[in-house]
Specification:
Jelly Rolls, 2 domains, four-stranded antiparallel β-sheet
Length: 304
Amino acid sequence: METHYLVVNSNLRDTALYTSGNSYTMHMMNPIRDVTRVELIQASVPNVMQNLPDGTNAIELDGSKFSLPNGFYSASGLASEVQNAIEPVTNVSVTYLSNEGKYLFSRPSADPNGDFTLTLSSSLATLMGFTSTTAGPSATVANQTPPATFNLYANNDRYQSTTFLKSDQLVNLTADNYVYLDINELNNGRMHQAQKIEANSFSTSASQNNFGPIVMDVSSGGIKHFSETNDYVYGVDFYPPISQLSRVTVRWRKSDGSLINFQGLNENSFMLKVTCKFLKDDIAPNLRQKAVKPRPIILVPKQT
C-alpha cells in the first residue's frame, strides 16, 4: 500500500467559475490511481447556520406584520430583536425568562387594544417555544387577598396589570448540528441517516450520499476546526478501488441536502489521507534501479 495526502483549499479555486466557496472543482497535477481508502484528516469550515433563516413577516400582531433580520440568535438577543420590532407599534414587550427557558409577551391591561393574539412563522414559533403558529389570546391574572392559597402568577409584580402570553414549551434555538462534505468523486452510499417514514416510504435526503459529516460544535459565526485527534476518525474503504482520482468536485451541504450559503465567508479547507495500491509497474522507468553484478573476485595463489 502507498499513502498520499491531498489538501484542498477553497481560496485556490477559480473564483471566476466558482464565485462561492460552497461549490467548486479542483484538479490534481498528479492523479492518484487505484484508491482503496480515503480518510478525513482535517477540515476547517465556518458555522454560518442561522436559526432564523427567513425573518420576513415573521410576526403578525394587531393586524400588522413585522419582519426580523435573518440571523443566529441567542435567547436574549431574539427577545430584544422581537421587542424592537413590535413594541413601538403595539406596546407589547418581550422578555426571555432564563429560569424557565420561555418567552413572555405582555402588554399593560389599560392599553386600549386589550388582549392580543400572536401569529408566528413556523421557524420563529419553534425558536420561541410555541407549539402552534397561532398563540393566544393573551390572559390576565387576578390578585388575591391573604390569607389564601395563591394561584400561579397571582400578586406577582411581573404579571400584575398586564395581559400576557408565554411559550408553551422550552425555546429551541438550535440549527443544524452537522454539515456534510459532498465530494462527487468519493461519494459512496455508506453514510446513512435515520429518517421518518412518510406515506409508507422513506423521505430521501441528499446528505445520505455524501462523503461524510462534520459535527458543528462551535458557536454560530465561529470556525469549526475538525481533526481526527479532537473529533473522531472517519474514513471510507473503496472496493473495487477507484481507478483514478484526478480531481475533487466539492459541495458543502446542510442536512436537508441544500447547499450552505456561506454569506461571504467562503474560505474552507480539508485534508484527505488517500491510500492506494502500490504497483511496481507504476514506478517511472528512470527511477527503477537495475541490479548491478558484483565485480569478480580474482584468487591469487599463495607464493611459497
